[in-house]
Give the backbone structure.
Amino acid sequence: MSKSVPYAALNIRIQNDTKKRLEAYAAAKGQSQGSIVEAALREYLDDSSQATLILRELGRLRRGVGRMERNLDVMDAGLAGFVQMWLAYNPPLPSEQKEAAQAMAAERFDQFITFIQHQIRQHKTFIAQVAEDNLLKNEDIRALLDMEGEGKA
């Protein structure tokens, strides 16, 4: 003997175009209009709708963007620090040395591009390499970012 599920009658009014859409959908799916309305109400009331799933995904994406922003801040601070140090410790070259220096710079830049291409092929990011090599600890990164935010770096 199977248990019967108790049902309650519900009389509602909906707009004519909604009713026509419901009839067409029910006919196409081969289901009763009542079962479709009940399923829709269950989904709406159980909060298991697509909107909830989309909001969860948006939360995940927001956290990912936050990590990307943090990584970009670290790279920004690192690049700014490098440029400041380079400018502070490398005086301008005399005119007679500029041509040789430019040729050497072009060669070194090509080596740099080759290195970057290799890193990208291996899916190694700068941030991952810094973490892997333990070059900077989280406290150091936070201090750099705080200094940059205060305009001290």
In short: Residues 104 and 125 are 27 Å apart (CA to CA). The chain has six helices and no strands. Helices lie at 16-29, 33-46, 50-89, 95-121, 126-133, 138-150.
